[in-house]
């Protein structure tokens, strides 16, 4: 397999054989989504090893540390450096004393896969370090549909490989999209990108995802003050419970001119009203 060597490339090429019922096997080179081990080292101590698509990696660790409640302000990251060897990546970060102490209390125990949001967390107690949200934001169903369509249009990695998850963050009548092999990673990248663009908790109104919606993704949204989450696929029971208790509007099956509201539906207008922009506020 041949992999692009640039940081942030995200796509490699593999020899493949196509079999169909229409003729002989066809050998060709096929685009595949990269998955690499990324070690996160905080103040000289290994914190976690995550399986990530190596694109927008600065966004990833920024959003990951925020979602872990290790940093409360981007200024708590003093400096960082990326190192790569034999196809694996490591980021060495220097944190302030307060952030380093939080990390020490939350240190993970095992490798976290690309499909894993809370793998390796030592204790299940205290998994929700964020307060319930209070937000007066509301929008129409068609604005949610528009945002989800924009996410699909912007999925460059998925268009090339058919393998990437995506997250879209809607804010100030604008949006940003990030992709990854892992749905949790895509959300972390989105939050990290928002932070690096100067957005702070409560300034992003909607999170859309291209996958199912689980507890961990609701938790990440709460941590960044996002009051509405929409998923193309279904939602889990624990996601609904967390959304209900923490003031988050939860939407599943947001596709094909339909959606299902599971929690705090008061933020969504009940008639399918037209909107002039992706977000109505």
UniProtKB/TrEMBL annotation:
GO molecular function: sulfur carrier activity; sulfurtransferase activity
UniProt key word Metal-binding: no
Single GO biological process annotation from the record: Mo-molybdopterin cofactor biosynthetic process
Cell location: Cytoplasm
Top-level taxon of the source organism: Bacteria
Keywords of the record: Cytoplasm, Molybdenum cofactor biosynthesis
Keyword Cytoplasm attributed: yes
One cellular component (GO) term of this entry: cytoplasm
InterPro entries, alphabetized: Cytidine_deaminase-like, FdhD
Primary location recorded for the protein, binned into one broad class: cytoplasm
Pfam family, one: FdhD-NarQ
Catalytic site: 116
Function: Required for formate dehydrogenase (FDH) activity. Acts as a sulfur carrier protein that transfers sulfur from IscS to the molybdenum cofactor prior to its insertion into FDH.
Family annotation (NCBIfam families): fdhD_narQ
Record-stated family: Belongs to the FdhD family.
Name under which the protein is recorded: Sulfur carrier protein FdhD
Organism encoding this protein: Acidithiobacillus thiooxidans (Thiobacillus thiooxidans)
């Amino acid at each position: 397999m041949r992999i692009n060597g640039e940081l942030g490339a995200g796509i490699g090429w593999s020899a493949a054989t196509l079999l169909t019922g229409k003729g002989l096997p066809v050998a060709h080179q096929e685009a595949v989504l990269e998955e690499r081990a990324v070690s996160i080292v905080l103040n000289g101590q290994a914190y976690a090893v995550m399986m990530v698509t190596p694109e927008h990696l600065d966004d990833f660790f920024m959003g990951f540390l925020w979602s872990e409640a290790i940093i409360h302000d981007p200024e708590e990251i003093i400096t960082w450096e990326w190192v790569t060897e034999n196809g694996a990546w490591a980021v060495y970060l220097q944190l302030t004393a307060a952030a380093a102490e939080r990390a020490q209390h939350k240190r993970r125990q095992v490798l976290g896969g690309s499909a894993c949001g809370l793998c390796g967390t030592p204790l299940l107690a205290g998994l929700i370090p964020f307060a319930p949200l209070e937000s007066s934001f509301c929008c129409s169903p068609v604005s949610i549909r528009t945002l989800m369509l924009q996410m699909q249009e912007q999925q460059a990695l998925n268009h090339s490989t058919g393998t990437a998850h995506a997250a879209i963050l809607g804010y100030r009548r604008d949006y940003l999209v990030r992709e990854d092999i892992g749905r949790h990673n895509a959300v972390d990248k989105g939050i990290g990108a928002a932070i690096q663009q100067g957005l702070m908790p409560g300034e992003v109104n909607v999170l859309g995802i291209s996958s199912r919606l689980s507890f961990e993704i609701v938790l990440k949204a709460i941590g960044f003050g996002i009051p509405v989450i929409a998923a193309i696929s279904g939602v889990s029971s624990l996601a609904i419970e967390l959304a209900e208790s923490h003031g988050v509007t939860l939407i599943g099956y947001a596709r094909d001119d339909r959606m299902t509201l599971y929690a705090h539906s008061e933020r969504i207008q009940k008639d399918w009203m037209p909107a002039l922009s992706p977000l109505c506020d």
